[in-house]
Specification:
alpha+beta; three-stranded antiparallel sheet; two-stranded parallel ribbon; about 120 residues
Amino acid sequence: MVADAGYGVSTPFRLGLQERGLSYVLALNGKEVAHPEDVEPHQPAYGGLGPPTLPRYRTPPRAVCVLAAEAGADRFTEVTWRQGSKAAMISRFAVLTVRPAGKQSLAAAQEAGGGRNR
């Protein structure tokens, strides 16, 4: 599945693709927040009192533009995507695998980890 940022910024859409086991590439705007690919939700130990602890990320999410900058300039590829009347349309693109962040993504991670009703 390939989609533009109109779909890429929709957490329910991304989660639906993931639930269906589909491979996807989605455009995001730089303000979207995400976790790096290698970060996993952590399941804290249950202390025995109160509701069970829920899975959570140990670090806060970061803007996608920050993750792209941290990936380095060598991750970007210059692509000519259209020949204009005066000049070629050229952009730089990077492909990064990230973990979605935000309330809906956190709820999905908690549900995958057993949720509130174990």
